[in-house]
Amino acid sequence: MPKLKKEEKRQFSNYISDVVDNDLVKSLDNYTQHRSTTTYKHSLNVAYYSFWIAKRLGLNVEEKSLIRGALLHDFNLYDWRKTNMTSSEHLRTHPKIARYNAKKYFNINPLEEEIILKHMWPVTISKIPTKKEAIIVCAMDSVCAISDFIKSFFPKYKKVKEV
Ligand SMILES: [Fe+2]
Ligand SMILES: [Fe+2]
Question: How many whole angstroms from 74 Cα to the centroid of ligand 1?
Fold first, then answer.
């Protein structure tokens, strides 16, 4: 995992604090994500990588919103495999559901809303991320998802068999 500097680590911990300790957010640890991890750990990773890349590239971003949006981007409080949804329905609809939950349980701002709603582009073809923060989270989500899937081929990481 890429390293944050000491001061950046302190900032990161500060930004995640009100979201990461929430019981509903913690419950995301009950849902397997990308075969090798949980939605909670995946979301934390996406937040960490998004913050790290923004710092390393010296991008002028709304850091707190970048991190909160990343943490809540998959805030789906169910296991889609136990619903009637197909995989492709889940892929297309879960950003809207995550946004609904994030609005309901957290006081998210319009930028955080955009980050969540547009993180699945180009699957959600009309939801093109235009804000820097949304583009970063969309890209880091893909990086983390690919890494999660690759890890699942190694028995020590594999969590469950998914459909
Ligand atoms: Fe997602
Ligand atoms: Fe994700």
Answer: 5
In 3D, which of 32, 27, 16 has the Cα closest to residue 79?
32
- Cβ contacts of residue 70 below 8 Å, gap of 6+? 43, 46, 47, 50, 51, 115, 137, 140, 141
Q: How many residues does the chain have?
A: 163
- Spatial CA neighbour of 159 closest among 76, 151, 146: 151
Tokens of 59: 């991008």
Reported confidence tier of residue 163, pLDDT bands at 50, 70, 90 = very low
CB atoms < 10 A from the CB of 127, how many?
Answer: 18
123 Cα–ligand 2 center, Å: 13
Nearest C-alpha neighbor of 69 from the set 119, 29, 33: 119
Classify domain 7-151 at the CATH topology level.
Answer: Hypothetical protein af1432 (1.10.3210)
pLDDT digits (tens, 9 = 90+) for 2-31: 899 999 999 999 999 989 999 999 999 999
In the chain, what are the domain boundaries? Answer: 7-151
